[in-house]
Amino acid sequence: MIGAGIGQYYLARKIKEKGYYLVTVTLPGNQPVIEIADKICYNDVFDKEGVLRIAQEERIDAVISDQNDTMMPTVAYVVEHMGLPGNNTHQVNSYCNKNTFRDNCDKLGIPVPRHSSMRTVTLPEKLADVPFPWVVKPADSQSSIGVAKVNNREDYLMALPKAIELSKNKSAIVEEFFKGQELVAEGFIYKGKYYLLGFADRKYFALNNMFIPSQTVFPSLVPQSVLDKIEQCESKMAAYINPNFAIVHSEYLYHAETGEIRVVESALRGGGVYISSHLVPLYSGIDINETLVDCILGNDVDMEKVMSKRVNKAAGYVCFYLPEGTVCKVDGLDEVRKLDFVKMMCVNDIKVGMVTPPLTHKGQRLGPILVTGEDRDDIEKNIQKMQNTLQILVEDPSGKKIGINWE
Fold it and tell me: Is the pTM of this model over 0.85?
């Protein structure tokens, strides 16, 4: 297993439950997989030759990672050099590199924002006739790192160098800003065929020029005709790139007034914030990590049988953030944990007297809280009940007491 963070933890636990010997490669630190792995090898996960050397010394039978775009090229490198089941570098980069993915979309006629690859701080010729705002992002990062909405030339010239610097390949992408509701598409590709697991609606915090999700809730309420169009796009890309097997996580924008869609992200890995490990099984009844482990071990998988286990429930994650100041009241934490529809609550260290900084990046949001329901109406009621139960007040620098920011 390449990486030992929380995104790999539940997959690692499943591997251990199956009785396999788990070697994890990671840098030193407070990484949860370290606690359960049979052997820990400390090495930079982006050092492909170093990771390959460890894999060869350990004579591994399979290699895996999940919920992290940046580790997948190293997984592919080991797959290629050891002849293991998995996807090669071309297949992985075709999805995970934002510029390559958008170029493939253009070839296939899949709607994608107008875009330009950038390695130097200049104005993009391809967007010369596209008015601001634009979106600037590193070509190979994740978790909204380095992503900025720019409203004018000055903003652009400040954001682009940062995006290039944050890219491992020193490449950024600049694209038109397409306004619309975000959808998440979760699927599994097996021998180049796409199998849909479900769609979710995503909400963002109302913050200027920052893209930080507050909720992702399955199932989506977007019209079925639009969802069918997105599924066709996913199938077309899968057939073109022809991955051997992979969980695939994609994000789309949908403009309700025009009916237009744009794909903005896609990667050959499960969705983060417990989407692939928890939410997919909770709303669909399909433990897709079980299928993934079968695939990396070279087992034949009957995907029709896997998909026949599907149920139609509702599940989602909810995050929040606190105003800048000092926490003066915390009520309802234990009560929320006891709610039968709350399946996980990653909120443990909020205490009176804690100083809360201004929200500047995705990693500062609190949660997630995983919530379930029988259907979309039911889960919305459950989310509201959970939010009403949890009460946290922060005293801001002016002395005003302000509650939780859910939106």
Answer: yes
